[in-house]
């Protein structure tokens, strides 16, 4: 049975369950572990699964869906266009459909605004294929009937302003890193005002990845709210995310945590207010993802923070209140 959780309505009219299963396994692939994770989640009542071409596990996600006993129509399935396919949207989309073994996806996202060459070299900001050109090719997919909604991921207000000015279809969602250390208040408001739903990736802050210890899951406010609900810090973070109007897509391959993550708490206004302030504590307003470390020159997959429109400095530290 589907879990009893809120749904959001996209600007296309389709509904999206507020909690989905993230399928990034920490490195590309995951194979049968990813397949089992999806089956366990579907059994536990998840009806929203988020994968990507770049996660390297679309075949296994598709197999899990087919063998789960849950009908395809009941499941909201997202996949994403990889950077090195920006110049061949239709071909890449068809390949994802084939790998997933489905006739349609519910949501197709441009994974990043940056394009790469076919052999994975970042194409400088502003050069073709630009994200505007790629988005126009994604718009054309809507006519095929094989995708219900299209959206973007990792887009800032600066890039969305260009996209909305130069193209016809307003993205249904913008999937970005979002959690109590990075609530992206301005971006969320800007998107809400234009009917774009924020989907929060890494809503748990990827505990274990950041210097090997969770950051906000250990925060005293989160821990005390969790205790008062007899629940876990992760449930507090996810419930906060949903109550503030974002979809959340935690990844877990652990059956107990999979169940926990789709059991939302009813947080009070005072608890929401305390959670809204976590990023204001010293050292807390930041991204918690490792891609900030990959290049020493302050670029993310080839573009500077300024080109991306991300209000951050090296390491993913937010420059001013957002
Ligand atoms: P696991 O798969 O062993 O449960 P995010 O979705 O923010 O990127 O975080 C994913 C990470 O968080 C994974 O390492 C996952 O490990 C862990 N995780 C998932 N659910 C929980 C939870 N309820 N409590 C603590 N850690 C969790």
From TrEMBL:
The NADP-dependent oxidoreductase domain, residue ranges: 32-278
Annotated keywords: Oxidoreductase
Active-site positions on this chain: 55 (proton donor)
Chain positions recorded as substrate binding sites: 111
InterPro entries: AKR, Aldo/ket_reductase_CS, NAD(P)_OxRdtase_dom_sf, NADP_OxRdtase_dom
Entry-linked Pfam families: Aldo_ket_red
Protein name as catalogued: NADP-dependent oxidoreductase domain-containing protein
Lineage of the species this protein comes from: Eukaryota, Fungi, Dikarya, Basidiomycota, Agaricomycotina
